[in-house]
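Private note to self, pasted from the team thread so I don't lose it. Backbone tokens:
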């Protein structure tokens, strides 16, 4: 069996009377991308802090590449790059000087530091803004520079804690382009986010935490199997559908239920499986029902997440 790059075992942490992290365990293989999910207050950030050696667990252990993580100055920490939720930049220093400062903290200097600055600025598409100060950057550009700083020392594990909070769709897409390049290069990533579509796009494996405990630790495909397949088709019609055609549609193979809305001009159909939708659209065309719009739906990560953690609001 291959030794995991990161091995988290039985982590627990209490603040006051509240147990924020309660016996959490998971591992991540080299080259894998792990999505770490949970509602607000579930214990994600505390877990990340313990993984990075910023917070001492009351019990349990963290090993990276077979070496124990600890507080203070620790050589294992050099193997981790952390992109925190809060921006860690000096607004009045040009982007390249920011990177040089962070590089110096890792003992980097000279041509090696220059080369790494060039490489990470290119990766996050900020090479043309290297001489500009972050105070002139958009929120998305600052986030990308934050990622560049975490990558400067070429870490074995990159941890991204809500890296797209407060950025526009274009910036989110630019960040994801960079992360997908890293993934294609075999970089190991941990990604925490409230945006389910981001984790679906990136993660090979997903850990869901709630009330300080791991409630799911599996691949996306295995998570989807926890729910009955949800397949549906919604169609807007030019003309109202007759009662006879509704009855005929309801008994077609693969159709579970049919509901008419909007004075008979919108059709909502639940299906046994997603592939049935094509046959249903063909049936509508053959029966002279022209459509102005249609949309399909299937089980996604948000459905699974809400089923496991509930729909009530969290602090």
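Design output:
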């Amino acid at each position: 069996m291959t030794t995991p790059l990161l091995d988290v075992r039985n982590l627990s942490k209490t603040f006051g009377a509240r147990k924020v992290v309660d016996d959490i365990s998971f591992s991540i293989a080299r080259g894998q991308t792990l999505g770490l999910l949970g509602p607000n207050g579930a214990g994600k950030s505390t877990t990340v802090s313990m993984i990075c050696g910023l917070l001492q667990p009351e019990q349990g252990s963290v090993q990276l590449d077979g070496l124990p993580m600890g507080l203070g100055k620790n050589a294992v920490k050099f193997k981790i790059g952390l992109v925190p939720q809060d921006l860690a930049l000096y607004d009045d220093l040009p982007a390249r000087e920011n990177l040089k400062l962070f590089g110096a903290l890792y003992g980097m200097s000279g041509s090696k530091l220059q080369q790494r600055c060039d490489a990470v600025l290119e990766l996050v598409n900020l090479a043309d803004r290297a001489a500009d100060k972050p105070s002139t950057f958009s929120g998305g550009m600052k986030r990308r520079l934050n990622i560049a700083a975490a990558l400067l020392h070429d870490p074995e594990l990159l941890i991204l804690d809500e890296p797209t909070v407060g950025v526009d769709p274009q910036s989110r897409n630019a960040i994801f382009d960079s992360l997908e390049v890293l993934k294609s290069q075999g970089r190991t990533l941990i990604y925490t986010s409230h945006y389910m579509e981001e984790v679906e796009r990136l993660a090979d494996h997903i850990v869901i935490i709630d009330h300080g405990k791991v409630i799911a630790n599996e691949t996306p495909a295995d998570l989807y199997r926890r729910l009955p397949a949800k397949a549906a088709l919604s169609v807007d019609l030019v003309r109202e559908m007759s009662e006879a055609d509704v009855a005929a549609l309801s008994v077609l193979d693969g159709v579970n239920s049919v509901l008419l809305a909007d004075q008979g001009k919108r059709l909502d159909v639940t299906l046994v499986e997603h592939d049935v939708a094509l046959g249903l659209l063909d049936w509508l065309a053959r029966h002279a029902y022209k459509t102005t719009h249609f949309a399909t739906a299937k089980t996604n990560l948000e459905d699974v997440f809400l089923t496991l953690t509930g729909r009530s609001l969290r602090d």
